[in-house]
Amino acid sequence: MTRTDPHDPDYVPPYTGQDGRDVGSGDRFGGDLYALYSAGQLHIPTTAGHYSQAAAELHYVQALLESIASQLPHPVGHAIARRAEDVYDALRLSTKRLYDAGETLVLIADDYAKTDQEARDQFAGLLERDASLFDNPPARHDPPRPGDPPTVDPDDVPEEEDLDQILEDADIEDQLADDDAEEED
Amino acid sequence: MADTFDLAEFYTVTSEAYDLMEELHGIDGVLDGLDERGLTGYRVTPGSSNMASDGDSTITLGTTHSFTKRYHGTQPGSGGGGYYTAPAEPVDMSWVDDVYDAASAWRVAAQTSFESDVESIVRLESSSFRTPSHVLVSTYATLKTRVSVDWAGLSEQGSEWEGEAADKFFKDFHAPFNSIRENHLWALDYLNSLIAAAKAVNDAGQHSVMNLVTEAKRLADRQLQKRQDDSREQSSAEALILLSTISGIAGALLFPVPGAAAALGSTSLLLNYAATQVPPENSKLKNLEASSAEEVDGALVDELAEVKTNVRRNYDGVQDKVAEMREHIDGMDDGVVTGSKVNLWTPIAASLGNDGTFYHESSGRGL
Question: Which domain of life is it from (chain B) (predicted)?
Fold first, then answer.
């Protein structure tokens, strides 16, 4: 059984026996190919998805800050908006490079699995064992590009009363509140 | 906690202050007019050593603290001569309407000028800063909690891979990523602090001008009260300088250094730093002194200029922090801040081309 779509959970790369490249061999090689494949197919796209969401949010923040800046009696508003744009750019570029890296790892794993029968068998066996993990691999969601309209729904922005819970869940300490408590003591 | 500056209320209080100033302007104009026309004070009447009561009239001045002013309502008739004395004629008081018209015109001009001058301070609703800040908190929490240290699932896999491409991927792309993520968290934190700082300046400026017009209104009211008090002595207008103290005008240094570590954990505190009033530690007392409507307006305009100067200086301070953030990011780009040769602001493009420079240790090539 050989499927040609590397995103198919049942995909098993073909071993042609014709590839003379010396890039590795044996079941450890196959296991490491599986690790590359998992990274490229699951882990890195998941991280990239979080980064994509973050980039979209910063894109929205930048738009909000530009609107605020147009009403402020000082250029500092535009300067802050430009820093938001800097962060958005970094998150957007990080997203792209993460997705690209993941896709490259998948291609490498598929390609190298063709070079060695034992590695191919190990790789295919691990894929079959963990087939459920690959049922719904995270799809690529590129963040909005510069100039695109914001994609964040304003209704999804947390209210102030939700912030404490978000911070608590993220294990972020309330530094100023702690300082105040120390002063009172 | 809600932002308490209310633009509609600000304009209401401003209008009320100028109502009182217009009233004061009119009263002083009438009192001055009576004096200028010799219609007040003692009048020497042949055969009498007292202030004449015959022919005196009264005029009611003001509405807020109204009072009645006595004046000489008649003047000797003209055309008499010899043994004939022409009957006294009522004094022409039509000029009083002109005084009130002038007060009204002055008020329109003064209020329009003040409102135009203050518009840049009051136009931005401070709560508009909250949404971007809340988004940043959410973004920060996502990157902090959902992107794990082993974000690629390869933390124990890199050592088996060799070659130039492997080094580029694992050492230059994979390994620095956690530091890159930390720097992104730092940037989100810093950005949020800048937003909170700008909000605090906006808040403080708005509360300052609200305090200003509130005190100007009080001062105009006290001057009107004084006119009423003085009238009991039936004196002419002797407008003494009254002093009123404004308790909350933004000082020169408004906000603690933004971008301090863990500022995000204090988002609510930072956003509410000046939400309800100028913070006492950043506030200063100012005196308003005035003896007339023009002086109340003049003091208002002068203090507004100082508020605007302080607001601008505070924004300048925030802008310095904005520049520092950019410098820090530039340092991450070229490794100045981190001492690293690797860009720790954005990951490099992972180069894993199938050019033979990426291979496994199980091959015979690494030996």
Answer: Bacteria
| Minimum distance, in Å, between the CA of residue B174 and any CA atom of chain A | 10
Whole-angstrom distance, CA of residue A146 vs CA of residue B350: 23
**Distance (Å, rounded) from C-alpha A38 to C-alpha A48?**
14
Looking at this protein, which amino acid is placed at residue B141? A
Please report residues of B whose CB lies closer than 8 A to that of A167: 137, 141, 264-265, 267
Residues 137-156 of chain A with CB under 8 A from chain B are: 152, 154
Q: What is the DSSP letter of B292?
A: S
Question: How far away is chain B from the Cα of A5, in angstroms, using its nearest Cα?
Answer: 19
CA distance to B133, B193, B353, per residue, from A174 (Å) = 16, 14, 46
State the complex-level ipTM. 0.89
Structure tokens at A156: 């999804």
Q: What DSSP letter does each residue of B230-282 carry, written as one string?
A: HHTTT-------EEEEEEEEE-S--SPPTT-TTGGGGHHHHHTTTSSS--GGG
Closest chain B residue to A23, measured at CA: B359
Residues 113-132 on A with a CB inside 8 Å of B are: none
pLDDT by residue, tens only, chain B of 367 residues = 789 999 999 999 999 999 999 999 999 999 999 999 989 865 444 444 444 456 789 999 999 999 999 898 887 666 655 666 667 788 899 999 999 999 999 999 999 999 999 999 999 999 999 999 999 999 999 999 999 999 999 988 888 999 989 988 998 899 999 999 999 999 998 999 899 889 989 999 999 999 999 999 999 999 999 999 887 654 444 556 666 666 667 665 555 555 544 456 667 777 888 888 888 777 777 888 899 999 999 999 999 999 999 899 989 999 999 999 999 999 987 766 666 677 899 999 887 776 778 999 998 875 4
Measured between CB atoms, does A60 come within 8 Å of chain B?
A: yes
Instruction: Kindly list the distances between the CA atom of residue B69 and the CA atoms of B187, B234, B237, in Å, as whole numbers in the listed order.
Output: 69, 7, 11
CB contact under 8 A, B268 and A160: yes
Taking contacts as CB-CB distances below 8 angstroms, the residues of chain A near B132 are 60-61, 64-65, 68, 84
Distance CA B190, CA B192 (A): 5
Q: Is A85 on the interface with B (CB under 8 A)?
A: no
Q: Is A183 on the interface with B (CB under 8 A)?
A: no
